[in-house]
Amino acid sequence: MSTNKDKLVIFDTTLRDGEQSPGASMTKDEKIRIARMLERMRVDVIEAGFAIASPGDFEAVQAVAEAVKDSRVCSLARAVGPDIIRAGEALKNANASRIHTFIATSPIHMKYKLQMEPEDVLRQAVEAVKTARQFTDDVEFSLEDGSRSEPEFMYRIIEAVINAGAGTINIPDTVGYGEPGEYGAMFKRVIESVPNSDKAIFSTHCHNDLGLAVANSLSAVMNGVRQVECTINGLGERAGNASLEEIVMAVRTRQDLYPVETQIDATHIVPTSRMVSSITGFPVQPNKAIVGANAFAHESGIHQDGVLKHRETYEIMRAQDVGWGHNRLVLGKHSGRAAVRARYEELGIHFEDAGEFQLIFERFKELADKKHEIFDEDLHSLVAGVEAPVEHFQLEDLEVRSKIGTLPQAHIRLLIEGESHRAEAYGSGPVDATFKAIESIADSKAELKLYSVNAVTQGTDSQGTVTVRLERDGRLVNGVGADTDILVASAQAYLDALNLLASGERKKKGV
Ligand code: KIV
Ligand code: ZN
After folding, report:
1. Are 352 and 433 contained in the same domain?
2. In the structure, which protein residues have their CB atom closer than 6 angstroms to any atom of ligand 1?
3. pTM of this structure
4. Is 207 annotated as a binding residue?
5. Which atom of ligand 1 is nearest to the CA of 172?
6. 126 CB contacts (<8 Å, ≥6 apart)?
7. Which amino acids does the record list as binding Mn(2+) (predicted)?
């Protein structure tokens, strides 16, 4: 790291704001896996969740706080005592913790949502920061809907919360309304107008409703901001948040422009992106900057010729610097337990429980029998779904007949609590027939909300990862299946989703 640049703090909120994307909910174990990858990537702050939101969120923040040692772990809390106390409890065992407390400051939010007077909002913000300081000396305060707040009010509230002990001041563009020039200028004015602004780090948190989240964040950096809140793959509420990989690589690639540098180890970007995508079931679009499959693919002859003659004619970054090419052939059917476990360790995936590793190793062997080359992506997809809490429905057999001009037909055999059940169904396509056959046994009353297929690696023997999102009684679950046979992967994903619904039911009934 050179010395003449300021540090840009990378605050990742994939596990909190990212998880707020409809259908992107993650289990505690999945959150730990992602948090470990973020830690390896050297993310400064990991926002692990919103501790008061549910017992599951509390446990996830607590577990991430215990698992992660090198990054600071943060919990979100509204600016009210119970939220802050809960966040403090969840972070108790963290090596380094942060409480991130927020309240809305825009006229529209204060009047209609909070139904509070600005002076009461200011008082509550100060109280919240003081309460949070009783749990940790690292407190962040966010002015929700800050980009639509009155400047004079913002200056007063920021000065007051800094005096109360907030070390980071975040002014989010909560609704994605900001424009780069205007949003950057807002930070410049705030930093110049708040008398104690030198006592805090200013932070940006941008949503992507107008596709400007990264541009707005970078404009803020140009105007004095030294923390960016962002997510892997730009996951987040509605159109998402600023994408971590784009922020990090923009700052790194344009060192001639940006007066900052990050401590991120960018070679972990692509594997982390893959992991987040396989856990959430949100595919990465092929033309997505940095992590999309085509991000470094030159199709046009003129480009290929140029790149071969001199790489920098058309390439501004090297694919391997962001972790492409790390999916080299690593293992095969002759690889033993130690090699598989070691590769998982290198990928940041630890198995504390011997039974869990055994299950993965068996899946690995099955896959290696079908597919010669086992890539890192395959290893990630093998662990996707490993923590499925109950296997109420298990796939015993599947046969699908499909012929041009006839309706496809699926024959399925499911094992339910030790008993075999068979069914057959026709469908408009082979996947439709498979799902109908499953439903004729399961009769789940769930609604199919999303079906997506992704090839994990290249080639026709690639594993397909299928995500199936089901909704029942307002509960959304994502089932994931991976197999070299896309129909088997589809059936597995559907059953995984049914199992998640069933495990929710069991928990409710206390079984
Ligand atoms: O978008 C937003 O304003 C937020 C805050 C809670 C930081 O997510
Ligand atoms: Zn947000």
Report:
1. no
2. 17, 76, 102, 142, 144, 170, 172, 174, 205, 207
3. 0.81
4. yes
5. 3
6. 160, 161, 163, 164
7. 17, 205, 207, 241
Return the structure tokens found at 123. Answer: 């008082």
Distance 115 CA to ligand 2 centre (A): 21
Answer for the pair 52, 43: CB distance below 8 angstroms, yes or no.
Answer: no
Residues 114 and 66 occupy one common structural domain: yes
Whether the predicted pLDDT of 104 surpasses 80: yes
Whether residue 310 is annotated as binding a ligand: the answer is no
Q: Which ligand 1 atom is at minimum distance from the Cα of 241?
A: 1
Q: What would the pLDDT profile of 358-380 be if each residue is shown by its tens digit?
A: 989 998 988 888 766 677 767 87
Residues 370, 248 share a domain:
no
Residue 238 within any structural domain of the chain: yes
Q: Is position 360 within any domain?
A: yes
Residue nearest to atom 5 of ligand 1 (CA): 144
202-206, 247-251, 276-280, 377-381: range with lowest mean pLDDT: 377-381
- Same domain (yes/no): 64, 109: yes
Ligand 2 centroid from CA 127, angstroms: 22
Q: What is the CATH number of the domain that holds 78?
A: 3.20.20.70
User: 441: how many CB neighbours lie within 10 A of its CB?
Assistant: 17
**Residue 471 and residue 361 share a domain:** no
The rounded radius of gyration (Å) of the Cα atoms in the chain is 24
- Cα–ligand 2 centroid distance for 110 (angstroms): 17
The three-class DSSP label of residue 373 is: coil
Residue 223 annotated in ligand binding:
no
Q: Is residue 364 included in any domain, yes or no? A: yes
State which ligand 1 atom lies nearest to the alpha carbon of 76.
6
Query: 439: domain CATH number?
Result: 3.30.160.270
User: Could you tell me if 365 and 399 lie in one domain?
Assistant: no
For residue 233, say whether it is annotated as part of any ligand binding site.
Answer: no
Kindly report, residue by residue over 7-45, the tens digit of the pLDDT: 999 999 999 999 998 778 888 988 998 999 999 999 999
Residue 455 in contact with residue 462, Cβ under 8 Å?
Answer: yes
